[in-house]
Amino acid sequence: MTARYFTLDEANALLGTLRPLMRDILHARQQIMDARPELWPVLVKAAHNGGSKHAGELLGQFDVIQRNLRAIQKLGVEVKDLDQGLVDFRSRRDDRDIYLCWRYDESAVTHWHELDAGFAGRQSL
Fold it and tell me: Which side of the chain, N or C, has fewer Cβ within a 10 Å radius?
């Protein structure tokens, strides 16, 4: 798949679409993490048709995450960290590829980093 490149305006314009997708991912992730102590036995029981209502709920949360990740990827956006709700938009700066970087709690795309720098290498635009 060929990488999609975004301008800053294009990246910011997508935030209205990304916010609800990331919100639902983060909520589903939290539901799974809250159930973590019992996650494995529940999933094993579900796999053996135990019919656990709790297993169905957890599997539903996994489905939300998977469905929303696919929707984000179809937009050409790269999800980098589900713990932080962090995504990158491939872009160009000074004739080289970079990432425009956005975190779920930020109101706009205001940072960038080199392709190999990651979140720790974020710089203000």
Answer: N
CA distances from 101 to 8, 106, 108 (A): 10, 10, 10
Q: Which tens digit of pLDDT belongs to each residue from 32-41?
A: 888 765 665 6
Provide the whole-model pTM.
Answer: 0.82
All structural domains of the chain with their residue ranges: 8-124
Alpha-carbon gap, residue 55 to 99, rounded angstroms:
38
CB 59 within 8 A of CB 42: no
Answer yes or no: are the C-beta atoms of 32 and 62 closer than 8 Å: yes
Residue 39 has phi, psi (to 5 degrees) of -60, -50
